[in-house]
Design goal:
mainly alpha; Outer envelope membrane protein 7
């Protein structure tokens, strides 16, 4: 009988520990679960997300002649 009591106490401890971790880490766990759900969803396309820049053809290196500030203007000295 003592073995059954010990097993039940151990199981109750594991369950209470699991609940404590779920409550303490709820925001982090929710973000992780959402990421997993998105990665497992075959219909999910990250290109369809709102807020993604539509200007795909923007130059990686813009023309430095048209820049408003030069390199010497960007660095300011403190005296």
């Amino acid at each position: 009988m003592a073995a059954i009591t010990t097993a039940l106490i151990a199981i109750a401890g594991v369950v209470l520990g699991w609940i404590a971790i779920e409550i303490a880490c709820k925001p982090c766990l929710e973000k992780g679960r959402e990421a997993i759900d998105q990665s497992l969803n075959p219909d999910y396309d990250p290109d369809d997300e709102a807020g993604v820049s539509v200007n795909i053809r923007a130059p990686l290196n813009p023309d430095p002649d048209n820049a408003s500030a030069t390199c010497s203007d960007a660095i300011k000295t403190v005296s």
